[in-house]
## 1
Amino acid sequence: MRWLAPKILPSIVLSLEEISKHSTKNDCWLIINNKVYDVTNDISTHPGGESTIVPNCGKEATSAFNTKGGQENPHTSSANELLGKDYIGDVGQKIVRNPVTIQSNSTSQREIEDETEDEIEDETDD
Ligand code: HEM
């Protein structure tokens, strides 16, 4: 038998269920305008404090981000620039968790990189 693609890269679907698994300070994904961001690395240096972001981890956070949690003034362009660097993909999109192209220091990312393909399939099934 001939195998054209012997190595399948691990992938996940950015479902609401998947995003909700990343709901802590050390592993924080947010949905803003239907896009998914891994903001874990920006939490400790957030000018508005950690406590404003963390309750939004794993959730739809468009309104929280746009209003800075209820304030009148929106985030500046430099905040949006930072956010852009954290972009993972769109909600519902299937992404390849390739350690070369996706940078993250979050625990979950390291775990995914260390896991075998079979283990990843097990993890996404539940
Ligand atoms: C999702 C929930 C978030 C809330 C509720 C929130 C809230 C706040 C608050 C209250 C401030 C301080 C405003 C002030 O008094 O100057 C602030 C500033 C700031 N935040 Fe956030 N933030 C959130 C997410 C983020 C994210 C994800 C980033 C970047 C990836 C970010 C980047 C910044 C920056 C750079 C500032 C400095 C002022 C500015 O550039 O607008 N924030 N935020």
## 2
Amino acid sequence: MSKTAEFLNKKGYTTKNNKSFTPVSIKGILENPVYTKADMDIYKFLKDTGAQIYAGKSLFNGKNGIMAYKKTFQKPGKPNQKLDMAKWIISIGQHEGIIDGIQWIQAYNTLNTPIIKNDYALLSGIIKCGLCGSGFITKKRSDRPGFYYICAKKCGIKNLPGQTADETVLKKLKPFLSKPFLNLDILSKRAFIYEYIQSVIWDGVSLNYCVGNNIKVIDGDI
Ligand SMILES: [Zn+2]
């Protein structure tokens, strides 16, 4: 984003307020669905995240652009705070959309997921240790294909077999996953999961998932 901002500034472009672009303003543009076509992918995504949609499903025909209200709120003297997507109010504008829904979803998710280096562990950044509260790192198995989630503080909790954990969580989320999910890259998949589950806690015996302040058991012994 800083490179994009730099590029635009060098070319002499300015924001609508005649200011220079910054990484923050670029992120704001990418996260704004106003440029996105109101199509079925974005309809499903917004609906899944709990946004309030004030337009009939049939109007999501891929032509006009999205309007999203209540994306931020402002306290006096403080910078704008982002509001949860569940609080967004969505309608369809008079303007033409230019970006496909799935493209916007990928960009949004990529921008809003913790940066994790590995490209195989679905729950990286989401899974936490039930003993010490720390995050998990991953380690590839040396004896055969596969990997483990390991407590980053090595507090002594049992290592968690990676694939089993990923599959268990995916199975639980299956009813909420839309078709585009399968086409997403791993960053977007993580972000998608993160939209539903704030954290997954491994207590050494079972996987528990945390939605808001509620903790529920996903599965028994693993
Ligand atoms: Zn631990």
